[in-house]
Amino acid sequence: MKPHLYLQFDGFELETHLRIRGKDLRDDKQRALDACAENGLTVTLVAAIEKGVNEHEVGAIVRFAVVHPAVRAVAFQPVTHSGRHMEFDPLERLTNADVIKLVAAQVPEWYRLDDFVPVPCCFPTCRSMSYAFVDGDGVVPFTRLLEIDDYLDYLSNRVIPDPAVRHALERMFSSSATPGAEKALLACESCGIDLPGQLDELEDKVFMIIVQDFQDAYTLNVRQLMKCCVVELVPDGRLIPFCAYNSVGYREQVRAQLSGVEVAPVVPNALPLQPLLQPTPYGSKTAKGNGTVTAANATNVGHRLRR
Question: What domains sit in the chain, N to C, each tagged with a CATH number?
Answer without folding.
Answer: 4-148+201-212 (3.80.30), 222-287 (no CATH)
